[in-house]
Fold these 3 entries.
Entry 1:
Amino acid sequence: MAFEDLKQTLAQYLDEDALLSIEKAYELAKKAHGTQTRFSGEPYITHPVAVAQILADMRMDPESIMAALMHDVIEDTEVTKEDLSKQFGPHVADLVDGVTKLAQISFESRVVAQAENFRKMLLAMVKDIRVIIIKLADRLHNMRTIGALPPAKRHRIAHETLEIYAPIANRIGMHAVYIELEDLCFAALNPLRYALLKKAVVKARGHRKQMVTHIQEAIKECLLRATFTDFKVIGRQKHIYSIYKKMRQKHLSFNDIMDVYAFRIIVATEDDCYRCLGLVHHLYKPVPGRFKDYIAIPKNNSYQSLHTTLFGPHGVPIEVQIRTKQMNKIAQSGIAAHWRYKSPGSQFDKVQMRTRAWLMNLLEIQQETGSSLEFIENVKIDLFPDAVYVFTPKGKIIELPAKSTPVDFAYAVHTDVGNHCIASRVNRHLVPLSTPLSNGQTIEIITDAKTHPNPTWLNFVVSGKARSSIRSYIKDQKQDEMVAFGERLIEAALGQLSISLEELPAESLENFLATLELSSMNEVYESIGRGERNSLLVARQLAQTLDEKYKTSASITSQVLSIKGTEGVLIKFAKCCWPIPGDPIVGILLPDEGMMVHYEACKKIASARKKDNLIRVEWETNSQHEYEARLDVELENRRGVLAELSVAIASTDADIDRIHSDNIDGRFACITFIVGVHDRTHLAHIIRNLRKVNKVLKITRVH
Ligand code: MN
């Protein structure tokens, strides 16, 4: 029986007391799941027992084993978190709660539910990393038994596992789980290809056996001669999915990949690693440029090893990894090794610290991102395994996702450094902020307190941290503008009712806020600026809270919103009717974007006009801003005419923003100019100048 097997494994490393508690947890889970079955028809309890077995094989602690046995009871049975807390203590209850999904009801779609659940798990993981270890074991068993599920569900789960859980397993160094998950996903998503590749691999291994033994013996002999006693030389096999990935990403053939012979040498001490490296470099010539020292600079998941590639017998490439036993344990089980080999101050503690640092980084990203979908996107980027290692001017190593830029670096140092960076030096040379960084460079960031993040940075930053910080800055920025804009809209709307915002008594504002259940006028302004509330309606509501005596018509001068042209992103000018100062104009609110200003007679806004959705606006007198206007010029084609037209426009000090020309039939052409002008007088000046150009037939301003 499965639980008996589990007990046997546990007895190898846990004491009587622990075993008793675990048995209690098992009894509770068994009773709670009762007659529930899995898709395969087996009793449900077989699943939590199998998950606990996976963790027991990793030598995880008793609390994790108990939580694994009960991991589905909150979600699928009547048992509550409080019940668990009372019987098994708060830690076990928190662990189970951490892997429990949120109630399904409240989500608009499965993707959102997935993202929200992931966010919840992550927060639990920050408190206790064992949550993700249990979740991974759960996922591993589900993937091992995925064949029982209907195809659509199989596909969805395999996909999610490949995108999120396998990379997380890799990120926290649980290598064995990682490769098993990847192969199981590959087999579930692409069964034919998986079967073919697997067959080919088995066949190739048969052919290679002789060569493998030959190289293995040569290395052993060489180490023995150098008086090594405590070591192992292992022939290494790539997992199926990694072969598939290599074939696809590097466009290699199956034979190209299988022609590489891979070995792992495990020795006693770090010194031995370097000594061993020298020996194998002496045995076979190393391939230049392929040596990597992950002992001095561990990978982000704490992986340590020396990597080198050699020219073997007959020139066959040999890949060698050299590491100590301890490094090997971490390479296999990563953070999970921490519970198995508790020894303060050891490498295992460092694994723990690095994992914490990663979680803290995720937490920061999550605090800066609004939606859980955006968050999960950022996490996926950060899980991308390739990294570059660069240095601060003081020599501190900073690890970034591959293709990171100085902006990513700046945000990795500190959010404030990122927000205010204006330039960067790489190895003492000034480079653009968008330059991709390479390993080993020293990066210096030049900041200026007065500058702000530039939205165009989003086009080149790669780290989740930089991306989420820049987005959050832009969002805050836009929010301030929305508030200011909403305030102007409400002022104008009140003006139409002969009320001034400044003169409204505080008491009536408070009453008004209470009826809306909002806490500040800024929230009201923001919702108006965003187009969620109509300024006229709000103004009328406000007016109703007033006594007659406050309506002082005399103090109101302007009843409409005036446009300066410098409002920024919130006021846009329509590209159908190209309004400029002097034109009669109206505004239309676009939800969440601000206001679009149209020429009053523009046909595009006919439907809004019917519904009375337009806002009265007017131009601010003497605005110095430039506005785009469109002129269509019909003329007889001749050489040099475009240059003459351009000169005619430029002589009025106007900018030509765009030109587009249509040959009508070879003899005639229509040229469209988008010109930057101050107002109608300026435009009239341009039209007069254009008329003077020879062979111009017709000039139309397009509304
Ligand atoms: Mn489960």
Entry 2:
Amino acid sequence: MKVFLVGFMGCGKTTLGRLFARRLGWPFLDLDLEIERRAGKTIPDIFQQEGEATFRKLEADALRSLEPLERAVISTGGGAPCFHENMDWMNQHGCTVFLHLDPEALAARLAPQAAHRPLLRGLQGKELLLTIQNQLEARHPFYRRAKFVLDARKAPEVLCEELLELLFAKGL
Ligand code: S3P
């Protein structure tokens, strides 16, 4: 079984993913790192040199390359569910989990990192919040299709146990 963590940048997918994988004794994979490894360059470089459309194609290819994995916890980039039918693919090939967080909390978490994130372009304050609100609204229809939703305001340790219970209830 593959567990795919989805949600906006900064919602804590990687932190929870690592913790949950350790708890289960399963491998953990970060799709962004997988894209970088396959492309031989960083995500900001891919965006800058080749544009978002190429990044989205690399992202979809990297995701599908994970098909042979039998058991893994996979954290995906914030935009991954919204392109190339990736959400359908993840729902067909594993269990999807959406980490929900409101725009204000996301803005607070992302403010110190906005300079390094290609889609936030160094935005701050009101502009950052507005961008997050708009992107979140556009992405919600995709995130909403996840099998489970977790409240990402909770501590990763709490979310880890909640997720374990949800998956066990489904006969993991
Ligand atoms: C993106 C999120 C990033 C990364 C890329 C694009 C997005 O991943 O894939 O910068 O479109 O929201 P994280 O959500 O892991 O930060």
Entry 3:
Amino acid sequence: MGERRKIIAGNWKMNKTPKEAKALIETLIPLVKTDDADVVFCVPFVDIPAAVEAVAGTNIQIGAQNMYFEDKGAFTGEISPEMLWELGVEYVIVGHSERRQYFGETDEDINKKLLMAFEYDLIPIVCCGETLEEREAGNTLSRIKEQILGAFDEVPEDLAVETVIAYEPIWAIGTGKTATSQQAEEVCGYIRQIIGELYGEETAAAIRIQYGGSVNAGNAAELFAMPDIDGGLVGGASLKEEFGQIVNYQ
Ligand code: PGA
């Protein structure tokens, strides 16, 4: 297995106004070490300018939580990848389970977003994960496979390798119920296997796969030590000083 650099991203969801975002980032900067891991704050759209300004001069990068899959046009209320790029955004979360669940995003939409993100040099953090019902019915791996094949349809190898995949079991998101490190590793390893089948061993060894779902300062070290887990996508705990401990988990 090659040397994959860890990536730890905060998904702020619909929290913090621009002023609050600036204050939180100023609190977090001295707590977050960026020597050994890429650190990304995925903030609400309107917070992006304040966030980009607040992280200037650090290695912390800013991400968005969504985007639309068209360049421009009559799509009231949507945000284009070019708009994000112009503001200095470097990552974009695509296909978070809350987008799938509450806003009806399909694997096809997610695939279009993935392809469009690359057009504007945005690195997608593409999410996948099973519901509790799917897990209990023994359908976790088949559901994950369906989501990964859907997301990566027609995505060429040179772009696929840049993508970050976040495995987020839906039953673990915001519930305080973390997947065990074995459960998380099983699925992340399986995702790497699917990427290997699609693109070959080299890409599989290089692509970064995060775990997300109730990551906190107490469980990060164990999760991130697993061979196929290259960091985390952190929701609730990314809004607190605890995020510093998660990033500095070693
Ligand atoms: P959580 O959210 O850490 O609050 O469970 C993770 C996510 O939804 O990205």
